[in-house]
Amino acid sequence: MNVYDFDGTIYDGDSTVDFLIYMYIKHPGLMIPRLPGQCLAALGYKLGRIPKERMKECFFSFLSKIPDTQTAVSDFWDKKEGRIKGWYKRQQREDDVIISASPEFLLKEICKRQGIRHLIATRMDENTGKITGKNCRGEEKPVRFREVFPEEEIEGFYSDHPSDCYMAEMAREAYLVKGEEISPWTL
Prior knowledge:
By secondary structure, this protein is α/β, with parallel strands linked by helices.
């Protein structure tokens, strides 16, 4: 099985940021009043005063005001689905696993559209923006992976970010992705 990070790896960009921008454009009256709180949360996180989970919850608190989150997500992917990278589409396999810090509710739709059956991501209530558990990032990714696949061997792991070194260590082979370029990950 091959395991892939999502944002910046098989998706050209950061889906969480892109979704937030999309929501600002689509629902400015709902989103703009939240901007000061989001900026304060980002600053609090950068200064080490609040954890990343709390910052993400602040950014996604608008979900409680959206009548149908899944429709918003579907509309978003109608516009952004083309940003799945070609190199991934060419090597995609049936047993691929996506593991990401992005919210699970956001990635489920694109995984379904792309025929990706296995998704491990940050568990977030799509109606409130509250995170259940931990942010699926860094050291948490191998923990979450082993919860789902306790015995599976990872043939290849692909990521664009050094924080994924813990997943890279689990794989027989690991690769760093930069745009459409893939190179061996040197641990």
